[in-house]
Recover the amino acids of this structure.
């Protein structure tokens, strides 16, 4: 797909954060990554009591204010989701992910980022 790398990353950021936080809470609740997401939320929001989910909401609002386009604006459709989710599993960037995401979680990220039919 011809799409600016940064714009795609921005469209994916809140869905990836949200999915990772949910997966960590479910499968690795003692993970240091959850603590880091909490710290990120406090830094982004300026609220010392912010939770990880508050950081996700801050990123979501910021992307909306910046008019970050959904993935569908680059021609990514529902029919592409399975193949892209499979490719994502093998992407080098996934090596740094704090938790292994399931195929369904990877597909849901793409849907949340605006890959629609």
């Amino acid at each position: 797909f011809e799409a600016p790398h940064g714009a795609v990353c921005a469209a994916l950021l809140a869905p990836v954060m949200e999915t990772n936080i949910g997966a960590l809470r479910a499968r690795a609740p003692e993970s240091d990554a959850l603590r880091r997401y909490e710290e990120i939320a406090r830094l982004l929001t300026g609220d010392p009591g912010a939770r990880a989910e508050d950081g996700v909401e801050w990123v979501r609002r910021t992307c909306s204010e910046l008019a970050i386009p959904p993935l569908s604006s680059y021609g990514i459709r529902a029919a592409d989701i399975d193949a892209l989710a499979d490719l994502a599993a093998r992407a080098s960037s996934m090596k740094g992910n704090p938790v292994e995401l399931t195929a369904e979680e990877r597909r849901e990220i793409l849907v949340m980022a605006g890959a629609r039919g």
